[in-house]
Design goal:
Number of helices: 3
Bound molecules: zinc ion
Largest sheet: 5 strands, antiparallel
Helix content: 10-25%
């Protein structure tokens, strides 16, 4: 790769917001083909090189980070069908049962309240068990 390449930031966020403080409860960033995720222009050289090497520039990628973990700075390759599904699910009204199928940590949503809470408003134990502000319990650990 040459040193004069431009880093074309091209992504869309579908982050749900905390129903108490309006902070993002999960980062759901869809990176378009030939695009880079937000802040890629500030990455270190070796992070950029790794991205360029392992990312398929013909495809969309999902970069996810929620209360239960993240899929890293490159993310997962997604097909158009999943991209459209995610866009539909995360435009209001949210389809909670569908979010459960997409993300094991439900992007920070309490299934009983049907509301999203950020990690400040979820009380999450070191073992990955969260308690929402109304006292509902929910696991966030993918290995459970
Ligand atoms: Zn909050
Ligand atoms: Zn709740």
């Amino acid at each position: 790769m040459n040193k004069n390449e431009t880093i074309n930031i091209d992504s869309n966020h579908l982050d749900p917001k905390c129903s108490i403080c309006n902070k993002s409860t999960a980062k759901i960033e869809i990176v378009n083909p030939n695009g880079y995720p937000e802040n890629a222009d500030k990455w270190a050289r070796n992070d950029l090189e790794r991205y360029n090497k392992y990312r398929d520039f013909n495809a969309h990628y999902l970069i996810y980070s929620g209360p239960g973990g993240s899929n890293g700075s490159i993310g997962d390759l997604i097909d158009l069908e999943r991209k459209e599904r995610l866009q539909n699910i995360f435009s209001k009204p949210y389809g909670l049962d569908k979010i459960q199928n997409e993300f094991y940590d439900v992007a920070g949503c309490c299934i009983k309240c049907e509301k999203f809470y950020c990690t400040t408003h979820w009380d999450i134990s070191s073992t990955g068990y969260g308690i929402c502000p109304l006292g509902h319990g929910q696991p966030f650990d993918p290995h459970r």
